[in-house]
Amino acid sequence: MSVNLRQVAQVLAGANDALIITDGEGRIQDTNVAHARLTGYTQDEVIGKNLFRLHGGLSCPDIYKSVWREIKRKQNWQGEISNRRKTGEIYPENFSLCAITDAEGRVQNFIAVMSDLSESHNLDSVAWKRANYDYVTGLPNRQLFLERLDQEIKKYRRNGAPMALLLLDLDRFKEVNDTLGHMKGDVLLEEAARRISRNVRETDTVSRLGGDEFAVILPECALLHVQQTAHDITESLALPFDLGDGDRCFISASVGIALYPDNAEDLNTLVKHADQAMYSAKAEGRNRFHFFLPAMQQEAQNKMSLTNDLRLAARRGELSVYYQPILDMGDGRLKKVEALLRWFHPGRGEVGPQVFIPLAEASGLIHEIGNWLSFQVIAHIAQWQQRFGQIIQVSVNRSPIQFDQGDALWLKQLAGLGLPGNCITVEITEGMLLKKSERIQQSFLDYRNHGIEVSIDDFGTGFSALSYLKQFDIDYLKIDRSFISEITVDESDKALTEAIIVMAHKLGIKTIAEGVETRAQHDMLRLFGCDYAQGFWYSRPVPALAFETILGRTQTEEGSFFFHSA
Length: 566
Fold this sequence. Notes:
Distance between the termini: 115 Å
Number of strands: 22
Strand content: 15-25%
Structural class: alpha/beta
Shape: elongated
Largest sheet: 8 strands, mixed, barrel
Low-confidence stretches: none
Helix content: 40-55%
């Protein structure tokens, strides 16, 4: 193969790519201007030098061998290597080498073409960082976390070094977002990331999995060190957060810990068990850490089984509505009643609402079950109106999650039966007033337009949200039973209960006392001017048919109610 090298050099002299022409031994004979720009070496500095010694990337024996294998086989080589500029800077380079042979196949010359890949590598680096790091905290994200966790598991299989996984959930973070806004929430997340990172080693991995969830990988870590790290992290996160502009907040963290290989044999199981331990810490009161225990797995399986049964409970006829009368303290008449959902499981017996309602909320079944309850209640109200000629107002509890889907279905049923809106009272918790989401505000507007009344359940045990009471047109405050139970013997409970009643009346809101169990409690509440009361002293929750019997009896007794014997 005969090639005029001078002509080749002239053609490529103005090319953007760097060019080197060597003899058959690799000694440099010619270069172009682009080569000087790329490497910093002038033509005079490289003429006569050996390409393979000058070219930093080819100083690696493995690459050198690869080049010569390809040259002998195909007479050319191309690949990405690292090269060194005259300044000593290492840069990525696309390197092509072609052998020029004579008629007998002997190598006469080499032509090398080089181009700088730094810019594309930088772009790739930016894209990689965006794909693998959290934009708020700068920590590794879920994707990179899983990769590093997988690497640590593989490392254990090589050297037998155990590790620990910590999953953290920031307690009450959502309240910060809801009250102070997402920008302040991001400030909190950044500071939380810094505090967590300060309590771990350089070899550990701290990542943000999303939302208010963080993870820490502790490789080659003794059990006592794991415990101390979890303690230090929870302590640091319990300190106050200054968010700027005078905003200050307090949060805490619930931490779940799973050990590898003690608690799991694979990545997914390790993460699942750490998650179960974290929820156990949250259930025990938050602001603490909890190691995974095998019993948690059994509990998780029981919850899954119970949730699956709950999906079929309504169509199997296992759900029912119980009613607890609410007494008018002024005239002793029964004018209101609270609807309470009950689940009678064929194998487990009665499952308490404190058990199945959280399962329904976590699984999303709360929407279906809530609508079922509302339909049953509205049908009963219509039935009682037809039978007794009066409207009984029914209080129905609404989970915060139910507001995400709205109330169109049961509002339509209410209108279809010609029932007034005030036959329903929606009971919510105090915390709902702080959320002020667009969906919740729209729901409150719909309630007002339909004449539906709103009651704050368990008042006095949640957040102080007095400024929101009038803003949201609250009709009733239900004083929590924890105040009522000691009202006759505890001066603080007595004073607080009376203060709640006075405050509510000043705001034009009526009060309902929960958990009345004695005549003395009844008398004191009446003395304080409480409007309504419910509790075992009047009646336990009863099925719909039994409640109809009570309604019938009040008809014959001119509407007055009766007391159970003490």
